[in-house]
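anyone seen this seq b4? input:
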Amino acid sequence: MQFPRMTQPRPSEFIPPPECPVFEPSWEEFADPFGFINKIRSIAENTGICKIRPPPGWQPPFACDVDRLHFTPRIQRLNELEAQTRVKLNFLDQIAKFWELQGCTLKIPHVERKSLDLYQLYKLVTEEGGFECVCRERKWTQISLKMGFAPGKAVGSHLRAHYERVLYPYYLFQTGANLLNSQKPMLTNDTKDKEYKSHDLPQRQSMQPAETATIARRAKRTEGRCFKSEQGEQCENRPNLRRRMGSYVAKPDSVNMITVQIKQEVVEPGESAPELGKSKVEQYMCLMCGEGGDEDRLLLCDGCDDSYHTFCLIPPLHDVPKGDWRCPRCLAQECGKPQVAFGFEQASRHYTLRSFGDMADSFKSDYFNMPVHMVPTELVEKEFWRLVSTIEEDVTVEYGADIASKDFGSGFPVKNGSFKVTPDEEHYVTSGWNLNNMPVLDASVLAHITADICGMKLPWLYVGMCFSAFCWHIEDHWSYSVNYLHWGEPKTWYGAPGYAAEQLEKVMKKLAPELFESQPDLLHQLVTIMNPNLLMDHGVPIYRTNQCAGEFVITFPRAYHSGFNQGFNFAEAVNFCTVDWMPLGRQCVEHYRSLNRYCVFSHDEMVCNIVAKADSLDLELASAMQKDLSAMIQEEKELREKAHKMGVWRSQQVDYEEQPDEERQCAKCRTTCYLSAITCPCSPGQLVCVHHLHDLCSCAPTNYMLNYKYTLDTLNKMFKAVGTRAESYDDWASKINEVLKADRNKCDLEDLRALVVEAEKKMYPETDLLRNLRQIIQEAEKNASMAQQLLNGKRQTRYRAGGGKSQNQLTVEELRSFIQQLYDLPCTIRQAPFLKALLNRIEQFQQRSLDLLSEDMPCSLALQGLLDEGTALDVDLPELTVLRQRLEQARWVETVQQATEQPDCLTLDCMRRLIDQGVGLAPHACVEKTMAQLQELLTVCEHWEEKAQNMLTSRPPHDLETLEAALLEIKSIHAYLPNCLQLKDSLSRAREWIREADAIQLGGRVPVLATLSDLVSKAKGIPVMLEPLARLESLVSEVQSWKESAAKMFLLKNSSLSLLEVLCPRCESGCLKSKSKKLKDISPPGKKTGVKLDCLSDVERALSESKETTSAMATLCEVRLKELESISVLRSMNEAKFQPLSSSSATTVCLCHTVPAGPMLQCELCRDAYHSGCVLGFKETQKGQPWLCPLCSRSEKPPLDKVLPLLASLQRIRVRLPEGDALRYVIERTVRWQHKVQQVSPFPPQFNGKMRPFSGMASTFALEGSNSSFYMQHPCITLTVLSPELEELLVEGLLLQVTLPELQQLYQCLLNQFSPSHYSLQSSEHDHQYHIAQDRSPPYRSPPHRSPAYRSPPHRSPPHKSPQHSKGQDFLLELPRETEKLEKNPKRRLEKENSDMQERDKIKKPKNKKPKTKKERRLDEKRTISPSKSLSDPSNSEDSEEDWSVCSAKRCLQPEGNEVNWVQCDGSCNQWFHQICVGVSAEQAENEDYVCINCSVHGLTQ
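predicted toks r here
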């Protein structure tokens, strides 16, 4: 279904009024309904309505018979409910009717794309003096502005045209202009104008309110019901709900139109009626010209049948009008009919509760296009007030209101009802909150009314749907009402307090006077609402609430209330009256009399019924009845005396209780008469109250009859009866009233307590007066307690107006008000004078605060002291906030001043933090001045920080002069600037760097590379342009290029050694560290060195730290000596591997650390053996050249002639570096070695003939304990034939890292001289192989007196040097006498050679002899043992080699192969053992001393 859009913009949205109070009683409070209502009355009556939520768990069952409940709802067209909107609709209906009778159709003009408000335009023009006056004074622009149109768009001319065309003819008609003598109005419509469809309110609601009403039904409900009286109307009155821009409209029925019956004017008795005597011929005569010709041009009026020629009318009509046409006389008669009273129509359809709910839910879900439970209440509320204010959207809803509960049952369970309750629900039947019980409770005066009044004593039911509304009204007789929502969606309420009732009535009459002119009691008809926002704008206090299911809403006496339903729901309501209502009830009757409005019940009758039970009355009720009865008797006495004076002398007693209420209503004011009434024989069945005696008839008062219920004496007796009951209570109450009203000589609080004690002693009822007294005492005690707490400074809470608690302190005004409240109490409070003194102290504090705050910027200490004083007063002083602000300002200013006085701590972050702190401060001149200075300083600092940063990171960097100029400006800034300090530090370091660079250049010494590199590295961290830096970087670059050239020349391919490591003498030997722990401390004793030279880094550091080349050469010379010593030890160790008495039974050689096998290569320098397969490139070694192992071959060994230019290029650079010193030393060492070689003749002639061949020398070996055999593939020079000087010369030549022809010649000569190929050994290679068999005899021991040429095993100390060897003698060793024996035993020969080598070391370096270790001293002791304790000397024995291979263990395991490893006893026997036989591992044999069992036992016995 398509819905049209609204053509008018949405008005201003509805603003919800404030919420009314909501109370949640406890179970104890909830047990007494009227007691709780009286308790909250003082609060709730100020808002007119309140909401009560029952305690959790109070949920009465729904007892209504749903299946039996059926009702006919009322039809409510929303925009007809609102007063101002209804006025506009009535006006438009009148305009439409006016033009309809002219044969024209009214169309609403459009101005600025919205419908023109014709009613507002008509009112404004009328207020401005009329159409002629507005045109004459040209006020159309002002009118357009008042109507809300934008200026400058010439809207005024359009408004004038529309007014003149549409409204001005109606205005002339209303003012009584003679249309017969004026131009006939014509309505010309624009095609864009929207046709107006009349609401036809008078025709739809033509029934007048009923004149009478029974007591069983409240007349105001019946009065509002209006029914259509046309006989021809069809019964299809059910609204066709059609949605239009989100709203449902009633679909107009254009087919069944009801013919309007024109009422003829009433002819006064004295007037003539010519129309009545008209003949049929005269009816067809034109009333203008009096002729009957031109019948085809005669027009018959549809109202009076008079005839008029079309050309006789002014102006003449060219065509016959379409539709109905009225003559000018009928037009005036039809439009002059009075408006009928507005009321609701009844729907034509009967609903059950289920069918109505389906319709209601469907309506709401379709309207909002969402499920009903998801529509927000705020949206429904705003949409409701929008719909009731628009004339363009007609939304029609239905409301099932005022359904009698006695017909279908109440929603609450009742006794003997059709709904059966469970035992757990029995208490709901008798509950005071059951609306069937509340009106008839003992505390309700309505219980004394005998008749059952529907809606007042019997609850009424209400079934609502979305937008169904109940209009502004007050309850009958200004009584209380209670409404309970059983289930369904919420009900929105609006209420005004009772004291604002007259104000609300005045505002509504002011805003919609037209409605009240036709219906003075409009607000009693429940048919009119008005926007709460509009009422609030005119000063009427309005409150609202949303009543949800299970909640009560209480309305208080004379409190106007209205509202609407949010959706489908079911509610129940009833009235009740308490004792406090009695004065208002009598006042309401007087008000009804002034409005000529009927009463629902007789107030006087109710009072008399209550007084008749005076003996059993409650004291409070008796006292209230006494006052009301006194007023009633006094009024009745005055009325009867007045009637008697007027001539009403006849009287009779009548029992009005037996007559229905409608039969005893005053004919004038409709008041129900009870005590008295006036009747006249001329008007039987009619009576008036004594107030309207003159309105009965025209007869003389002497004919009237006074009908009375009680005589005055009877009334006085009734007064005395109730007075006796209330007398003592009245005395007590008068005392309380005197005490409460006393302005001077107030009583003490104890006097009030005594009155309460008296009431309790005499068992007075809990009346409002007593409750008020208790409340006053409680308030006084509470105020006294609070005053004492204020004085003690221990106040925890305070009580503001309204009773709410707050944790905040009292303000000065509240304290002053509280003190005034203490003095206003009916009793005296002893703490009041002390609080007044406190108030004086506070005022003095405020004055001092004002004086201190008037200063520009007071001291923070003074502010803090005053703030502490104010805080101690325990009062919320506004000065404290200002003092705190000023204290923060003062502290901030002082902090800024302190920070500026300490520039070293004033960082940018500190300034920003201070600025951030200052930004949050309250504005002040001093703060702003300090802030401006601080921000200026921060700006300058940030500028220089950024500038300094740019200078530090500038590429190229700035020169010294620029930086110094910047620093001069920075000095004037008193703050801590890291970048500026860094700039200053950089400038300082730059100056220091330049001084160092100048010192190096002007020092006269050749600079060291390390110093230059450090200087260049240091310059990289200085962001300053340094002029010498480029030259130094160039110098360092040249040195690096020289190092690369030297590395290419010396370093082997893929070598892991550095250039310095290659050029320097070897200060450490990797192979020595892994051989034996006995050789770790091999450095000679007594050597004093200033610098530790244990590794290459030590040497490099020493060279770098040396200031001159001489010291560097001395250092390298020292390292050379250490190198020679280390290589000598290494050669001895490696040679010892192949001797028979070797300390290691499992000799490992080569890079793979395995036993020798197959073809082996022996290094000429370190004398270690290598497998030919493990060494790559050995075949490249030319024959006759010394072969060096990979560990000894450290460099390429370039020729000397290539090295010398390298040194010359370094000298040209004039920079010292460790590699350069090492290269210089290499060259010097080489030159010295060449000089030595030139002085040595390796083969003196005198030894040529004495040389004996080594016939016993073999090139094939087999190690003891090993099954493998090997042979030396590359021949080496035998050490036993070389003198120490010659060996040293050869070793040093091999250590040189340059290639020399002298070394080649020396080695070739030695090789040719001592090689076995020069001896007469003609047999094959196998003939020269000597296989060493496994000798199982005990090994030989060294004799105590050894030959000088005998060599001990490796682990023994060497013997003394032989006197035959002297320095400077022959370079060839004489063959010892035991040569032949050694030739037979190769192992002994190796041992002898090792011993000779050690003797040469002793001769060569006697000063470097290391002190003997503990083990070596033990070995020397072994040699001094007597011959009887030693074994036979092997030199005198001819035993075979197998004697060496006998294990001394008692149970030898006879191992074979790789398991044969030997260990020698370090005790006194020096015997040899298999390691496996004595349980010693190879690691233990190498690193620890081994002592056999025999030596251990021998040592213990000694």
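The two ends are 131 Å apart (CA to CA). The first helix runs from residue 27 to 30. kinda curious what u guys think
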